[in-house]
Amino acid sequence: MKIRLLVSLFLVMLLLTGTAMAAKPVINADKTYFDITSGLYVLEGNVYVEVGSRIVRAHKAKVSIGSLEVWATGGVTLTQDDITFTGGDVYVYGTQKRAQIDGGVVLNRNEKTIRADSVDFNWGTKTAIFTGNVVVNDGDNVIEKSVIGYDVANNKII
Hints:
Number of helices: 1
Strand content: over 45%
Largest sheet: 11 strands, antiparallel
Oligomer: single chain
Distance between the termini: 58 Å
Radius of gyration: 19 Å
Structural class: mainly beta
């Protein structure tokens, strides 16, 4: 009976360890250090942060391993599978499956280009809400609005 309990406990611990490691980000930059007082990795130059299928590239960033939050500035690119947003800066709310990109956002996808001041992208629901000076170029169609929603999964304006 004790052996079954120990084996079960060991399997649960192994499963939890594997789950925790799956969420661990890959972090690379020209200059990287860990700030003990803030608990953040501070990155400068050719920043590359990968968590699952999401990749953030930028000039500078700070990363919280615990909350999977990323604050990045300068030539930001956020890639999720076949979706790529570019902008000035990004704040990734890792546990909420959201990213807020500001500073002039561009999304090019399947002959569709969306430009805006900012976008709130939710990779859990596969939706993006573009705000401020939004211009959508879709073939011969051009749409201009202050706010536009985009269904990423179906490649449609909502």
